[in-house]
Design a protein that fits this description.
The protein has eleven helices and 15 strands. It is of the alpha/beta class. Helix 9 runs antiparallel to helix 10.
Length: 318
């Protein structure tokens, strides 16, 4: 609820992963109770049942793309809304117990996605080491701390927690990779616009209409609303049935975004509002300049035209 920051947080666990690292960037989370969950569905169910106030889950990665389970679970059940997003660099490190050197490493614990993103570095710097699959980055660090393996590919947050030494830093093959997380909660009035906001939606199009998806995109384009992302996910009904996740710049309280949403409501078979929230500050390497609306479609243009129409309806000269 606006003005009442959440105090009970859940996140995709276990501890010492990038999800926890992202959660710790949120001031309210650092003061609240944070509980790791075994899965995205479990985390979101905790909100829907009232056991938690907010849940942080991965939404997309600049290398691997959308996190399908998060998208699916966000619309499978009672409505939830995004209240903020967090973008952090995916800076994998190689860590070991004190006293062990890189040349001593014969086994490396890693989550399969982590080792895949570090394949080139491993080939060049640890070609003879066996890569041991584990369930998470946190589990990799814990296994090394317990003496089960020589080294771990993990998130920086795990080093201090497990008393490890950093053997190598930033070992991912894509040094500028980032992961975006979203904080979801039960629906409530969105925070006030900041001037740098995103609006997220899930839409179902009418499959018996030619050009249904084009009609959706047109509602945004004609109002100068910049579509920043579109992702399709199967609905599970039958082959060829999809739900589309859209993200655009702007806030539901702004005139042009509000009009676009009204237009979408008219042309979509179903629409679910997933929130308007301030856009996360991106790492310098990933930051992009905002795309301004075309001439005649700025917020001030909308305000001016609305005032003009209001005067006409009052019988005043236009």
């Amino acid at each position: 609820m606006p003005g009442v920051p959440p105090t009970r947080f859940v996140y995709l666990g276990p501890e010492s992963t990038f999800a926890e690292q992202a959660l710790m960037t949120i001031p309210a989370a650092r003061k609240g109770v944070c509980t790791p969950m075994r899965s995205v569905p479990e985390a979101l169910d905790a909100i829907r049942s009232g056991e938690a106030d907010a849940a942080l889950v991965p939404w997309e990665n600049s290398v691997g793309g959308a996190v399908g389970v998060s998208l699916d679970e966000a619309i499978d059940g009672d409505p939830l809304v995004i209240t903020r997003d967090v973008v952090i660099p995916v800076e994998f490190v190689l860590a070991a117990r004190p006293g062990r050197m890189l040349g001593d490493v014969r086994s490396i614990a890693a989550h399969p996605q982590a080792s895949a993103q570090c394949r080139g570095w491993l080939r060049s710097h640890a070609p003879d080491a066996a890569i041991i699959d584990v369930l998470s980055n946190g589990a990799a660090a814990a296994a090394v701390s317990n003496g089960e393996h020589d080294a771990a590919i993990c998130a920086p947050i795990a080093i201090e927690r497990f008393g490890l030494n950093r053997l190598a830093d930033k070992i991912a093959d894509h040094p500028d990779a980032v992961t975006r997380f979203v904080l979801l909660s039960r629906p409530g009035p969105p925070a006030q616009p900041t001037g740098d906001d995103l609006t997220s939606l899930a839409i179902w199009i009418s499959h018996d209409r030619v050009g249904a998806l084009l009609a959706v995109l047109t509602e945004l384009a004609v109002r100068g609303v910049n579509l920043t992302r579109i992702e399709s996910r199967p609905t599970g009904e039958k082959l060829g049935r999809y739900v589309f996740f859209l993200e655009c710049t702007g806030h539901v309280a702004e005139a042009r975004v509000g009009e676009a949403l009204q237009g979408l409501r008219r042309v979509c078979a179903e629409i679910r509002f997933l929130g308007s929230y301030q856009r996360a500050a991106l790492p310098a390497t990933a930051a992009e300049k905002p795309v301004p609306p075309p001439p005649g479609l700025s917020d001030s243009d909308y305000a001016d035209s609305a005032a003009w129409l209001r005067d006409l309806r009052r019988g005043e000269p236009g």
